[in-house]
Amino acid sequence: MTPPELAALREQIDQGDRELLRLLQRRVKLARQVGEVKRAQGLPIYVPEREADLLEARRAEAETLGVSPDLAEDVLRRCMRESYVQESGHSLGVRPGLRVVVVGGAGRLGRRFVQAFRESGYEVAVLERGDWDRAAELVAGAGLVLVSVPIHDTAAVIAALPPLPPGCLLADLTSVKAAPMQAMLAAHAGPVLGLHPMFGPDVLTFAKEVTVFCRGRGEPGEVDWLLEQLRLWGLRLHPAQPEEHDRHMGLIQAMRHATAYAYGLNLCREGPQLNELLALSSPIYRLELMMVGRLFAQDPELYYDIIQSQRQHLDLIRDYHATLADVIELLEGQDRDAFADRFREVQEFFGPLGEQFLGESRVMLAQSKDRVG
C-alpha cells in the first residue's frame, strides 16, 4: 500500500505535469503563430543564432533556479523541434507562382518537395514515367525542373528531357553529383544546380537538415533564389564540388551502408533472438542495432544503387575489408601493445572531436535509454 505522504507528493507531481502540458499546448499555439509571421515576413524557419542565444539564456536561468541546465536544454530542444514541425508549411515562396516541374514527383522524396513548393505558393506539376508523351507540354513555361528519380535512372532521364525554357533552372536531388551534373550541363544550356538532400522522405520537417549543393551554370540571380528557398524551409546548405562530394559520400554513405548490410546479414545468419539481444543491450548497442535495423526496413534497391553508384566505392569497401583482416590478425596474435598503438593512432586522428563526440553521444544515449520501457 502506498504511504499517504508519498501519494500526496505524487499527486502534486501529477498536477505539475498537467500544468506543464498546458504550457506545452500554449507554446505549440505560439509556434504556429510564429510560423505565420515568418511566412508573412519571408523569414527562415530555422535561425541558428536565435536558437543558440535562447539556449544559453535559459541554461543560465535554470542554474539560478537550481534546475539542471542540461535538463532545461533537453526539454527546450525537444520543444524547439516540435516548433519547427508546427512552423513547417508556413514558408513564403521566394518566387511564388513560378512553375515548378518535379520529375519523379510521385516518389517519396519527390512528394516531399512537391508538397513544400505547393505550400510556398508555387505552381507545381509532376512528370512521371507515363507522362513522357506530354513532357514538352509539362515543362513549357517552367522556371524550375527538379529531377528526383533513382540513381541508376538519373542520367538517362535527364538526357530524355525535352528542351527547357532558356531561363529555366535545371536541378536534381541525386545522392551522387558528378555524373548527374555532367548530364544536366549537356542537356540544358541554361542554369544548372546539383542538390543532395542528406535526409530521407520520413523526416518530420526540413528544419536543420543538411543539403549539399553544387553550382553548375548560371548567374546568381538565376540560381540563388532556389538556395534561398531551401534556407527559408530551414535547410542547412553546404557547398561542394561534384567530385569532392562523391569522394566524401563514398565514406559517409557507401562504406557505412555496406558495413551495415554485412553486419545485418551476418546477424541474420547467426540467428539470435533479437528481443533477447535488445533486453541485454546497453543503450549504445541498442542504437547501433537500431541503425542496422533501420536500413533493412527500407528499400534494398536504394542502398544497392548508393553503394554501386561509383566504381571507387568498391575500392573503399575492399580497403575496409583489408583493414578488418589486419584487425583479425592482430587479435589472433594476442598483441595487446599493437592493438593499443593502433587505437592511439585513431585517437590522434579524431583529436578534439573525440571528446566532442563523447559528450554528444552521452546525450543521445540518455535519450535512447529514456524510451526503453
Automatic annotation (TrEMBL):
Pfam families named in the record: CM_2, PDH_C, PDH_N
Cross-referenced PANTHER family: PREPHENATE DEHYDROGENASE (PTHR21363), PREPHENATE DEHYDROGENASE [NADP(+)] (PTHR21363:SF0)
InterPro entries per the UniProt record, alphabetical: 6-PGluconate_DH-like_C_sf, Chor_mut/prephenate_DH_T, Chorismate_II_sf, CM_dom_sf, CM_II_prokaryot, CM_T, NAD(P)-bd_dom_sf, PDH_C
Gene: tyrA
SMART domains: CM_2 (SM00830)
Protein's UniProt name: T-protein
Lineage: Bacteria, Thermotogati, Deinococcota, Deinococci, Deinococcales
SUPFAM superfamilies assigned to the protein according to its UniProt record, in alphabetical order: 6-phosphogluconate dehydrogenase C-terminal domain-like (SSF48179), Chorismate mutase II (SSF48600), NAD(P)-binding Rossmann-fold domains (SSF51735)
PROSITE patterns: CHORISMATE_MUT_2, PDH_ADH, RHODANESE_3
Annotated Rhodanese domain residues: 91-141
Keywords assigned: Oxidoreductase
Source species of the chain: Deinococcus piscis
Chorismate mutase domain ranges (all copies): 1-91
